[in-house]
Every structure is written in C-alpha cells, then in structure tokens.
Write a structure and sequence with these properties.
The complex is a heterodimer of chains A (211) and B (389). Helices cover 36% and strands 29% of the residues of chain A. Chain A is built from 5 helices and 8 strands; from the N terminus they run H-E-E-H-H-E-E-E-E-E-E-H-H. Chain A has an 8-stranded antiparallel β-sheet, covered by helices on one side. The termini of chain A are far apart. Chain B contains 13 helices and 15 strands. Classes of the chains: A alpha+beta (211), B alpha/beta (389).
C-alpha cells in the first residue's frame, strides 16, 4: 500500500465516523429538549433561562439577625431606604400613594421610576409595580420570613423589569456595574450591615474619602 | 503620618500619607507603638496575592495606644490595646458562632464582589491585606483606624512590655488554632511543616495541648534550632527523606496530625514544586502546593491535617485519593483571633507562653523596607521583625 492510499483509506473511515458522531449528538440533544423535566424546588430567578418574555428577573436573599417587624418598617420608610440604597439618588412620596425614585443608571445617567405598592401585609411582604409616567416597566416583591433556629429574618427581594434598550441595554448596564441584580445584592448587604452593626463598613481612612 | 506602602512586587516604601480619622461610630484611632512584619506579608511583597494596589498601607500585626474614639466605641483614650488582624462586627451569624474570621459585615459591600465570584462567598475584612479583604489601611504606620473597636482590640495592662503581647494580633492565636485544628490527643505525634513564626508557635501550642512528640520540618538551621529549643525533634528536608523519616520516627504508623505552616509559596527542588514555581510566575492564582501534598501523604490513616498556611488560588496534583482512601480530616481557615486573645493573654501573664524568643530584629518604621528584604532573603537569621513607628 502506498502512503496516498493509506491516507485515503483512513479518510474513508473518518468521514462516516464523524457523520455518525454528529447524528448521535443531534439525536441526544433533541431527546434532551423533548424530555420534559418536572419543575424543581429552586426559585424561578435561578433558572438558566432568566428572561421571561421581555422581562428580566433578578432576586436575592439575605439573612439578617433582626425581627421581621423591624426590617419591614425600615423597608417602608423612605428616609431609611436612602441609607442603604446608595444608587437611589432621591426618593419622595408623591400624591395618591406613589413613590418617585431617581436612580443612578450606567454612564452617569439617571432613571426615573414611579412606583405604587399594590399589596402589602405587615412584616410579611410588599408587592410594588411601576405606574404610568415611569421610565422603566418594573415590578417587584419583598418577602420577610423567619429564618430557622433564631437566625433572624430571611429578606428576599425579587424584581422583574424591562431593561431600557432590551438585551443590549442589559449588557451595557452590567458592564457599567449598574444592573439591578448587582445593585440589589449590594443594597441587601448594606441593609444587613446597617441593622446588625449600626453602620456601613468602609475602608476609607478619612471621612472625605468615603464613597 | 508615615506609613509603609506597597509600590509593586518587591518594592515597599515608607511614605507620608494623611492621618486616619474616625469615620464610623464604632471606630477608634490607635497610635501604634509596635508593629511586626508577618510571613503572610511576604506573599503580598512577592506579588502572589491579587488585589494589592500601589499606595496601600500594609501590616496587620500591631498594637498601640487609643488616641480617639467614636461614640460607639467601648475603648477609652489612653488605653493600650492589641488589635486582631481580622475585622469582625460581633453581631452577625458568624461572629455569634465565634467564627470571627467569617464575619459578614466587615468587608465593604463594593469590595465583596471579587471574592464572592472567586470563592463562592465574600471574604471578611482584614487590615492591610489587599482589596479582596476590604482594602483596609494596615498597621505598619504611625496611626491606624480600627473599625468595630468595641469587638476586636484587647486591652493590655500598663507596664506589660509590647513584645510580650504584640503577637496576640495574629501569629500566636494562629499557631494556637493550628494546634487546636490538629485535635491533639495524649500520646499523639504532630508533624509541623515550616519553622517560621506560625510553625514555631504551633510547635509550642501542640506541646501545651499534650502532644507526646512534635517533629518540625524546615531547612534553615537557626529556625530548626529554635524549634528544638521549644522541645521539638527536627527534620532538615535538604538532608533527609521526609516521608521515610516520619514513618521511621513514628514506629511505622505516621504522624497522627500534620500542620502545614508554609502555604502557597513552598520551597525546595522537588519536581512538583519546580513545576508549580514556573506556573505561579506565569499564571496568577496558582499556588505552590508541595507541602500540602507531602502532609497528606505523611499523615496516618484517619489522621488530621491542619492548614494555617495561606493559600489564595488553586492547587493541582492534589492527592485526593490519599485524602479519601486514608480517611483524612482537614481543618483550616483564617484565625478567629478574637476567640483566643483573652485566654492567650492570661497564659502570657502567667508565664506559660513566651513569644519574645522569636524576635530577631527591631527596626524603626523608617527602615521597614530593609526589614522586608531581609525577612524574605535571609530567613535563617531574620526570624521576626518588629517595627517601631
């Protein structure tokens, strides 16, 4: 056998093998998507698919060593909110029970959000929604539940929103560290610090260095 | 004030920087009277810990006098205090469990993202140890701002020399917790890798906790002498096959517990270590795990591995098979300093523990860079450097 015929014969084996491999892969993947898995116990926001229609869903839980009542009260007091929500430049109670928020967006932009509490149960949950005149379509819920073994309260904040600019806008916000997912995580941690320690940690050595 | 700052790999300098002031209610400002260079500072100096920025003030072993307090501090001006290197709030779930180095609330929120992504959970704040642990200015300086000053600092009586108590800030509790993590039983043999300050204190602590035999491993003759003077037997790894020697010195059983007081920058010319050294220079976040691999091989079946040595990234060629098949337990972690300071202060005051044998050099703060260079390059003689601001 010459070298050429050898390589030709190995091609003759390799091509059908590759085709067979591809066929198996396609079959496997199609079976995967066709098999319906029953829903699991995880919160929907942890699903690998985090877009629900035009809405992006984000959420985060934190355990805070304090009773539900105290945390609920802090969450419904605009003066307290401003202390731990550092991306909120201003929040004021408007007429007819609406709240008007000015929130920092990416690249020095500002986003105005007008919300209304649609349902609340004291020390249990708050549900809110953006109203007409708001620059973002968003709705959210905050739950307050007793943590096990006297660990305090689990605060769970969930937001569903239409990122301004859709998918592209979402990635821009993420790149500039201004997406609601990261902001929400930071805000819950600041609330925890404020409640558990009475202050918000900083490594600034002087007051004017504090960001 | 004057402070030792980071300028780059193997480049630290004493610069003039603004004085700290009270920022949060529970803060105190300490005028530093003594501060030390820690072996773990050398990991920063060598550039193997990410997140250190030019101008950062280093140092996490310090003590001094209280010169200012916020309204939430329980300290009083004029008190002398030793400050733990971990910053702990005292109120979160972890602090309440006594796991102070797991405090949730001391690393500033905006600094937590990096370690939440790399370690799965955000690290606790520490003084002078990169922005991964908060970017807090350290204590190799004239003054330091101490957050949560009602929880961390331990007050020491006037008239007690600084050098008797300074090491309560880190290395003494770290050596103590290393021995505690080794879960020593009467009759046990404990092998300790590394005769640096933490290794030597682990030797001392293991003997106090009732170890029958402690075997210390290093290559610097003077450091091995210090271990011997504390009551350890010693192995010089440049002369002896360590694994074989440990088996022969323990009647073929192997040490009941082993302590890795070396960490991510192990020395020596073993093939795995040469490969790791090359890799560490090219890839950030790869640790040199030679000692850890040896420790897992050496420890007896069902034995305990305690790791006070600092690791920051990934170790490969990890002998997972030895770990599982021999049924080994591993305990590790940054030291829960606040859990041990009172007990250890009592032991120092009673004369049971002496830490001053370790100090080889005392320098003015202005000469801190000389201290770093020699502590790194002349480890045989330079066993511990205390700086005086």
């Amino acid at each position: 056998m010459t070298r050429t015929s050898m390589s030709r014969s190995s091609t003759r084996i390799a091509v059908p093998l590759a085709l067979a491999g591809a066929a198996v892969a396609v079959y496997y993947l199609s079976q995967q998507s066709r098999t319906s898995h029953p829903p699991d116990s995880a919160p929907g926001r942890t699903a690998k698919q985090s877009w629900f229609g035009d809405y992006k869903v984000a959420g985060r839980s934190v355990t805070i060593a304090a009773p539900r009542q105290e945390l609920f009260q802090r969450w419904t007091d605009p003066a307290q909110l401003g202390r731990f929500m550092e991306n909120v430049r201003a929040v004021e109670e408007g007429p007819d029970g609406t709240w008007r928020w000015t929130v920092s967006g990416p690249i020095g932009t500002e986003v105005r959000l007008v919300t209304r509490i649609v349902e609340a149960r004291k020390a249990e949950f708050i549900a809110w929604r953006s109203v007409e005149g708001s620059e973002i379509e968003a709705e959210g819920k905050v739950f307050f539940r007793d943590a096990p073994a006297g660990r305090g309260t689990v605060v769970e904040a969930i937001i569903a929103y239409q990122p301004p600019g859709g998918t592209v806008g979402h990635w821009i916000a993420k790149a500039f560290r201004a997406d609601p997912r990261m902001q929400g995580r930071h805000e819950l941690k600041r609330l925890k610090m404020l409640v558990e320690t009475g202050e918000i940690a900083t490594s600034a050595n002087r007051r004017e260095e504090r960001t | 004030m004057r402070a030792l700052t980071y300028h780059g790999t193997l480049d630290v300098r004493v610069d003039t920087v603004p004085d700290p002031e009270i920022v949060n209610p529970r803060d105190a400002i300490i005028e530093i009277t003594s501060t030390a260079i820690c072996g773990s500072d050398l990991h920063l100096y060598d550039g193997v810990i990410p997140g250190v920025q030019k101008g950062d003030i280093l140092g996490h072993e310090f003590m001094g006098r209280v010169v200012d307090v916020g309204p939430g501090s329980t300290l009083q001006k004029g008190q002398r205090v030793v400050v733990p290197f971990t910053i702990s709030c005292g109120g979160c779930f972890f602090c309440q469990l006594g796991q102070f180095s797991g405090c949730d609330n001391s690393n500033p929120v905006e600094k937590q993202d990096a370690t939440e992504a790399t370690y799965g959970h955000a690290l606790t704040g520490m003084f002078g140890y990169s922005h991964l642990t908060g970017g807090y200015p350290g204590g190799q300086a004239q003054y330091a701002r101490v957050p949560f000053s009602d929880v961390g600092p331990i007050v020491v009586p006037d008239g007690v020399d600084d050098e008797l108590v300074l090491f309560l800030s880190d290395i003494l509790p770290t050596g103590w917790m290393a021995a505690e993590n080794a879960q020593i039983q009467p009759g046990d043999t404990v092998a300790v890798w590394g005769c640096g300050p933490v290794g030597l204190f682990a030797v001392q602590s293991s003997l106090i906790m009732g170890a029958e035999q402690v075997i210390a491993i290093d290559h610097h003759p003077h450091r091995l002498d210090l271990a011997r003077s504390l009551g350890a037997e010693v192995i010089d790894y440049t002369q002896t096959h360590v694994l074989e020697a440990l088996m022969e010195m323990t009647g073929g059983i192997g040490p009941d517990a082993v302590i890795d007081a070396v960490g991510m920058e192990s020395h020596g010319f073993a093939p795995d270590n040469l490969l790791d050294t090359l890799k560490q220079k090219v890839l950030p976040g790869t640790d040199r795990g030679h000692v850890l691999r040896m420790a897992l091989m050496a420890v007896r079946k069902g034995g305990r591995v305690s790791i006070p040595g600092v690791y920051g990234g990934f170790v490969d060629k990890f002998p997972m098979g030895a770990l599982m098949q021999k049924g080994i337990q591993i305990r590790t972690g940054q030291t829960h300093v606040q859990r041990y300071t009172r007990d250890l202060l009592n032991r120092i005051m009673e004369g049971q523990i002496d830490t001053t044998f370790l100090i080889s050099h005392r320098l003015p703060l202005e000469e801190a860079a000389t201290g770093y260079r020699n502590f790194r390059d002349n480890q045989n003689e330079w066993t511990k450097v205390v700086l005086k601001p």
